[in-house]
Amino acid sequence: xxxxxxxxxxxxxxxxxxxxxxxxxxxxxxxxxxxxxxxxxxxxxxxxxxxxxxxxxxxxxxxxxxxxxxxxxxxxxxxxxxxxxxxxxxxxxxxxxxxxxxxxxxxxxxxxxxxxxxxxxxxxxxxxxxxxxxxxxxxxxxxxxxxxxxxxxxxxxxxxxxxxxxxxxxxxxxxxxxxxxxxxxxxxxxxxxxxxxxxxxxxxxxxxxxxxxxxxxxxxxxxxxxxxxxxxxxxxxxxxxxxxxxxxxxxxxxxxxxxxxxxxxxxxxxxxxxxxxxxxxxxxxxxxxxxxxxxxxxxxxxxxxxxxxxxxxxxxxxxxxxxxxxxxxxxxxxxxxxxxxxxxxxxxxxxxxxxxxxxxxxxxxxxxxxxxxxxxxxxxxxxxxxxxxxxxxxxxxxxxxxxxxxxxxxxxxxxxxxx
Length: 419
Prior knowledge:
The protein contains 18 helices and 15 strands. The chain is an alpha/beta fold and 419 residues long. Helix 2 packs across helix 5 and helix 9 packs across helix 10. The N terminus is likely disordered.
């Protein structure tokens, strides 16, 4: 949990409450769900463990689940993403929270193990750490689990690998794959917050820089779009031919990583994979190159290889490390290679997290309603939930849309009428 002095400091918790309320202004969908949960108590008596980035937006999800009657415990999903005031505020609301910004790996995993002491029946993950630890170190807990949700691309990749190998022991809803998640959170949220984090850490001028975006999934789409909007020349690195072709037709240069390494000024990884920037790339980078990551884990940049190639390193300012290579070239690593948008900034804007966390809340409710009916595996967010989240978001924005007439519905469902 946050340090005792922090928990006992009323000003820290109060500051967190104010910021949680500020985020709530942009989360009307989650508010509507919380109001219904307050009446219906779908999680009454249900134990939930949530391993998430402990931010003000996450706090609003936690309060929504608590309103629904959940016995909730929260832990951090990344050592640098916790906002200590948000954590302190959650504790003051009666939600045990195990997270401290800047914690080392030992403390990080200790906090996860502490959350698992609650013997959760539902898990909420941001990277699948809760799931994998339960499947490896706390297997006795699996028999009590109803199901879980997973919010990230990286986490869903891990879970699908577990399911393919027959190792996943309970049903998990892939919140990341909901349209109202990846089309908005991944694209607009990651795009804006990643550039925000890099800019806060470095105060770099984007205009005229060559920004290399490694990975052109929906997160890569957003980062490339925002970098171009700031005046950067954007280069995309991809291994998927369809995504590479899409990047070309979106107006970006596409080339192999080694070629991009020679010309790039700022490198941003968003692949979910390991060592996508490695030793041979560091060897050809220009002096002054900046490396940042917005994938979930700090493995996308081969940091051990960068350290091995360096003659010295030092911390220049918060979230900026300088590595001096042979010949005097300097490479700058941001945020220890961890999620730069949460390490050096505040993460995604509340407005997009509103939809992501609405899917989390409704996905958990779906699992409770279907308790015992789902086999172990990775499941999509039901289409009616996805569409309901979109409809609620539009309503909150004051936007109305048309509906099909009975004649139009009949026409679309008929294969005989062609005129």
